[in-house]
Amino acid sequence: MTKVSLNQGQGSKKVGRSVLLGAAFLMATSSIGPGFLTQTTVFTQQLGASFAFVILVSLILDVFAQMNVWRIIAVSGMRGQEIANKVLPGLGLVLAIMIVIGGLAFNIGNVAGAGLGLNAMLGLDPIMGAVISAIFAIFIFLVKEAGKAMDKVAQAAGFIMILLMMYVAFTTSPPIGDALANTFTPEKLDILSIVTLVGGTVGGYIVFAGGHRLLDAGVKGVESLPDVTKSSVTGIAATGIMRVALFLAVLGVVHQGLAIDPANPPASVFKLAAGEIGYRMFGVIMWAAAITSVVGAAYTSVSFIRSFHPMIEKYHNWVIIGFIVVSTITFAFVGKPVKILVLVGAINAIILPLALGTLLIAAYKKDVVGNYKHPMWLTIPGIFVVVVMAVLSVRTLIVELPKLFS
C-alpha cells in the first residue's frame, strides 16, 4: 500500500472546533503583522477610498492561493517541502531555504513590532518590550500542549484586534458610501499596492501556516476537506474583516483632513481617532499583531525543515525557540536591517508563485494525491494568481531593488 492510499484511507481524526479556529487565526494573525498596519495606513493615505478596490482584489487572490494550498496539503498528507520534492527532487530544499531565510529576517521586524507595541501600551523601552514579548512567545512552545496553546493565543489575539479595529473605525466616521463605490470602480489604481498587500498576507511562510498547523493536528485525507475548507475560509474572512476595519479607520481620519504623522502612521491614526486611549489601543493591536506573527513565522518556518533530519523532528519545539531567540538578539544588538528586509520581501514575493505553482502541479500527480481530482474552479484561478504574481514579482526584482541598492 502506498503512502498516499494510507493517508486517504485513514483520513483525519475527529477535528475539534478549537483546532480549526486555531489554524484559521494562525494564518490570519500571521498575515496581519506590523508591516501590514503600516502598509494599509500609507496606501490609504495615497489612494483614499480607492484602496477599497485594492483590498477586494487582494482578498480574491488570497482566497484562491490559500484554498489551493490548504487543500493539496490535506489531501497529500505532506508538508509543502515534501510535496515540492515529489514534483522535482531538491525543489523542497530550495523552497525551505527561501522560507526559513525570509521568515527569520521578517521575524526581526515582528519582534521589533512587539517591542513598539508594549512601548505604546505601557511605555516600556522598545528593546525591553521586545525581550519580554520573545519570552512570552517562547513560553508557548515550552508548555506540554504547545499546539493548543498556540491556537488559543492566535484566537484571542485575532478577536481582540478585530474588536479594537472595528471600534476605532466606528469612531472616525469614514465615508462608507465612497468606499463602497470605489470597491468596484476605483478613481485611482495602483498595482504596487496590490502586490505589496498580497505578498505581505500570503507570501513566504504565511500561505502554509494554517495548512501545516492542521496537518500537525492530524487533519488530512480527502474526507477532511470540508473541515479544511471551513478553516481556510474562516481565516480569510478574519483577515478581510481586519483589513476593512483598519482601512475604514484610516479613511475616516484622512477624510477629516487630519495630518497623519509619517514617522509612525498607524499609531498616529489611532491617536487622532480616539486620543490617548486610541494610542494605547494601537499598542494593544500592534503587540497582538506582532506576537502572533512572531509565533506564526517561527512555527511555520521550522515546519519546513522538520522532515530533513530526525533530530529536528524530535526537538522541533526547541528549534522554534532558537529561531525566536536569534530574531530577538539580532534586533536587540543590530536593529532592523531595512535593506535586508526589503530584499527578503522581494524573495517572499517570488515564493508565492513558486510554491503555489508547485502545489498545483502536485495536485495532478498520483504519487502525491492518489485518485483525488482537484477541482478546475480552484486550478484555473490558482494558475492566474501564479502568473500575475510571478510577472509582478520579477518586475519588482528587476526595477525596484536596483533603486534600493544603487
From TrEMBL:
Stated membrane topology is:
Multi-pass membrane protein
Q: Could you state one GO biological process linked to this protein?
A: iron ion transmembrane transport
> TM segments?
20-37, 43-65, 86-108, 120-141, 153-171, 191-215, 236-259, 279-305, 317-334, 340-364, 376-398
**Gene Ontology CC entries for this record:** plasma membrane
Q: What is its main location?
A: membrane
Tell me the compartments it is located in: Membrane
Keyword tags? Membrane, Transmembrane, Transmembrane helix
Q: Which GO terms describe its molecular function?
A: cadmium ion transmembrane transporter activity; manganese ion transmembrane transporter activity
Keyword Transmembrane tagged: yes
Recorded superkingdom: Bacteria
* The UniProt record lists the keyword Zinc-finger: no
InterPro entries the UniProt entry points to: NRAMP_fam (IPR001046)
- Pfam families hit by this protein: Nramp
Protein name (database record): Iron transporter
